[in-house]
Design brief:
alpha/beta, 39% helix, Aminopeptidase, globular
Length: 473
């Protein structure tokens, strides 16, 4: 079909999609608390004639919208949760909280959900017009930031009936995501001791805070003896109180353990558990541990990645006004060190040199080009619950420019840009790419067959869900 029809459909919905993204930006709801954000997406889906299913897998803010019938069934993933402490006045080149201590869309998920739903609507219209055959499903996926909503959904069998899944993410470059990323398991450790007067009766006290500190020290020594592909991060949730003259009876830690796959993350977690046990023994305290969430490594699918790359090249790139360029240049001044996109990946020197030239050594305020696509085994140190979807169906994703070049991740600068015309243009571009790629999959069974063949080879060991049935969100 003529993809211009899809592009036109997205443009026709531009006002509604921009209004939706801005509305979700304003709500800035945290993981698994996105009630108003979910409701806004659901309302638009219903208005567009989608069959909506709510409360997926028992998660109040998880839902889907389905349109069409029969095969193929293509899923488009959406997110909408925000981050704490990143409230920021929009369109401002200085750090200025809109609500002191408030939340903000520092990862651009307000744009992610809006573009994905826009793509689903564009495809829906072509199904209704008889130009496409199949089913498009928009998935409202909550809690990507710290709660791994897609993992809970995948654990309960969601996504298995899809022929393929597509997603995207706001970024400072237009590029296909390739390679993989770390699997991650997040655990909460609670130590319980005995309170006592720290000076008058110390021998009867058993300090939970001592146990927590010993656990942290023990994990520091563990770092030398683990694979370089692994990493461990922690925070102190409860130090036991504010009175130093009391032996602290409680303490709580949060640990995030990463490995290059679920198996290695679980193996490293078992060692961290032993450190916690040792800390409890040394201090004569007790401890309990509770899994919070987990995500899998992502299974790359080069067939779908190449399809996305073709559509990135075909869709009309946004152009920027002098005012937008000036804003981007001013905001870029707040970043500090200049970063050339792609240098962290294992691109060869020729590709790196090309990217450096395109970005003027990273000085370009807005990256208005398509990054070269180079299939790679690069392992990102970060984690995403899209990885769990990729173990259940062929999956691919891309990034689109919604931020200033060199923007730090999870930053006030991203929040500031997220409600500007720069972000809106990138969001609409992403919707067009997703819609066009979905149409290709509906019209090209040979592409789906090749993607499934690759998927069967790369997932032959089977899905090892990083969370058990006992874990609740």
């Amino acid at each position: 079909m003529d993809k211009q029809l899809l592009y036109n459909a997205v443009e026709a919905k531009a006002s509604a999609l921009t209004a939706l993204s801005d509305e979700i930006w304003e709500y800035a709801e945290l993981s698994m608390q996105e009630h108003r954000s979910a409701a806004a997406h659901i309302a638009l889906l219903k208005a567009e004639g989608f069959q909506v299913e709510e409360n997926l897998c028992g998660i109040p803010t998880a839902f889907l919208g389905r349109y069409g019938s029969g095969k193929p069934v293509i899923g488009i993933l959406g997110e909408y949760d925000a981050l704490s402490g990143l409230s920021q006045v929009p369109g401002c080149t200085q750090k200025q909280p809109l609500i002191p201590g408030g939340n903000g869309q520092g990862c651009g998920h307000h744009l992610l959900g809006a573009a994905s739903i826009g793509a689903a609507i564009a495809v829906k219209e072509q199904i209704a017009a008889g130009n496409l055959c199949g089913t498009v499903v928009f998935y409202g996926c909550p809690g990507e930031e710290g709660c791994a909503g897609k993992t809970f959904m995948a654990r309960d069998g969601m996504f298995r009936d899809l022929d393929a899944a597509l997603s995207w993410h706001p970024d400072d470059v237009n590029e296909v995501t390739t390679g993989s990323n770390a699997a991650c398991i997040q655990m909460e450790y609670t130590f319980t001791g005995t309170a006592a007067h720290a000076a008058g009766d110390p021998e009867h006290g058993r300090s939970a805070l001592d146990a927590a500190e010993l656990m942290n020290v023990g994990v520091q020594f563990l770092r030398e003896h683990m694979s370089k592909a692994c990493s461990i991060h922690y925070s102190i949730l409860d130090g036991g109180g504010v009175s130093p003259n009391v032996v602290q009876p409680t303490a709580k830690l949060m640990y995030m353990v990463r490995g290059n796959n679920v198996r290695s993350a679980k193996a490293l977690l078992a060692r961290v558990d032993k450190v916690a046990q040792g800390a409890a023994i040394m201090t004569e305290t007790t401890y309990t541990c509770r899994q919070i969430d987990g995500t899998s490594d992502t299974v790359s699918n080069t067939v779908l990645e190449k399809l996305l790359y073709e559509n990135l090249q075909q869709a009309p790139l946004p152009t920027y006004t002098a005012e937008e360029e000036a804003f981007a240049a001013a905001l870029k001044e707040t970043f500090g060190e200049t970063r050339v996109p792609g240098v962290g990946c294992n691109f060869d020197r020729v590709v790196k040199a090309k990217v450096s030239k395109l970005t003027d050594g990273g000085k370009l305020p807005l990256n208005n080009f398509i990054m070269p696509y180079v299939p790679t085994n690069y392992m990102s140190p970060g984690s995403t619950d899209v990885g769990d979807v990729s173990w259940l169906t062929p999956t691919a994703q891309f990034n689109a420019v919604t931020w200033v070049s060199g923007s730090p991740g999870h930053s006030w600068q991203n929040v500031s840009t997220g409600k500007t015309s720069i972000a809106h243009k990138g969001m609409l571009f992403a919707a067009k790419v997703l819609a066009a790629a979905t149409a290709d999959l509906m019209e090209s069974p040979e592409i789906l067959a090749a993607a499934r063949e690759e998927f069967n080879l790369t997932t032959a060991e089977g899905y090892d869900c990083p969370i058990t049935k006992e874990v609740t969100f």
